[in-house]
Amino acid sequence: MSRVGALRRLAAHEARWLAGLVWWVARRRIGVAADERPLAYAAGQAANIYGLTFVCLVETVAVGVLLADHPVPHAVMLVLDVYTVLMMLGFQAAAVTRPHVLGAESLLLRDGARMEIRIPLERIASVRHDLRVSEKREEGTLVMAVGGQTSVTVVLAEPVVAVRLLGRREVVRTVRFHADDARGAVAAVRAASGESAAVRQG
């Protein structure tokens, strides 16, 4: 991908997490229809995000005191620090407002504002609760970890294509993702997959 294309995708990513802050305040979710089931995953990273945000706030105050007699550097650092705090909160807001979504025909998996992949239910061969922490990357496997862990593994009967943040495409045959209620998510996907198969056969 060209540099211009990469910059455009980064700008779109930034716009998504900024929009997520607005939707978070409004207590609304993005892209979840009334007949679809959201599968939350944000709780898995909340402690880390809020901890880092607190550290950033402390740093902002400390730098403000140190640069109090230097107006220009103080202003520059203040802008950077405020942006960093907003970005950290934006990452959490994106995860809250963009949950995984289970519909009648597909399972939409999201990684906050960074990426998403839609899996037709007919392509799901199996789904299971499978807690893993900091695993090695495998070819054909997409890992969408939260807080360094995944808790659900989906094996596909037919591959799908995942598009990374900067536009890189890869063929995926197994997806590992995190859900706050992993066992509930597995049961829901199994039920939806079974209903989808019954409709196709009928």
What does this structure look like?
The protein has 202 residues and is of the alpha+beta class. The protein has helices at 3-25, 43-66, 71-97, 182-201, and strands spanning 37-39, 100-102, 106-111, 115-120, 124-133, 141-144, 149-163, 169-177. It has a 4-stranded antiparallel beta sheet, covered by helices on one side. A 4-stranded mixed beta sheet has the order 5-7-8-6, with helices on one face. Strand 2 (100-102) and strand 3 form a beta hairpin. Helix 1 (3-25) crosses helix 3 and helix 2 packs antiparallel against helix 3 (71-97). The N and C termini lie far apart (44 Å).
Shape: elongated
Whole-number mean pLDDT: 90
Largest sheet: 4 strands, antiparallel
Q: Helix fraction?
A: 40-55%
The total of beta strands comes to: 8
Oligomer: single chain
Give the count of helical stretches: 4
Gyration radius, rounded: 20 Å
- Strand content of the residues, in percent? 25-35%
Walk across the major sheet and give the strand order.
Answer: 1-2-3-4
**Structural class from helices and strands?**
alpha+beta
Please report the distance between the alpha carbons of the first and last residues: 44 Å
Q: pLDDT under 50 segments (min length 5)?
A: none
Series of H and E elements: HEHHEEEEEEEH
